[in-house]
Amino acid sequence: MVDGVISNQLAFKIVEPRGEEKEALRLMEAAFRASTWKERGPSAPIYQQVVERFPESPFAEMCSYLAIAYSHWREAKEGTWDKTILDSMMLENYPNSGHSRDLINAFTWQKEDAEKLAILDELMQKHPNTRCHKFAELMKKRILKGVKD
């Protein structure tokens, strides 16, 4: 607004997704609509479709996480599902994830240092030259120095 006049000109360009990304977004919207606060399970297979049909999509990692998590929604609500399984699976499938540090922390936080070190060594061996390796190495150095996160 300048001098009481509102402009309808935008200072940025709106880019609509096309092709596979547009289809992936449509599926994600359908998955969102298929779930409710009480029941997320119906959306899990739809999120899985995104992963299977568009594995190179920037949405694949998030959809994989949601597909797995929502397929275990009831068990998680009942407290009978171990979410660390999901964290481990995500690291296995997406070792370059921007969430690697959080995933490593999630499935090691209640373990003793010796067990953590063994897990971190295994991750570094399995995933060289990845974010997973980088964060595992940093965490290992902190443990060995006695520094808490």
Give a topology summary.
Elements (H helix, E strand, L loop, with lengths): L18 H16 L9 H10 L6 H12 L1 H6 L5 H10 L6 H9 L4 H14 L4 H15 L4
Helix pairs in contact: 1-2, 2-3, 5-6, 7-8
Describe this structure as you would to a colleague.
Helices cover 62% and strands 0% of the residues. The protein is an all-alpha fold and 149 residues long. It has 2 domains: 16-81; 82-149, no CATH class. α1 packs antiparallel against α2 (44-53) and α7 runs antiparallel to α8. The termini are far apart. The mean pLDDT is 90.
Number of self-contained structural domains: 2
In DSSP terms (H or I, runs of 4 or more residues), the helix count works out at 8
* Secondary-structure content class: mainly alpha
Major sheet description: none
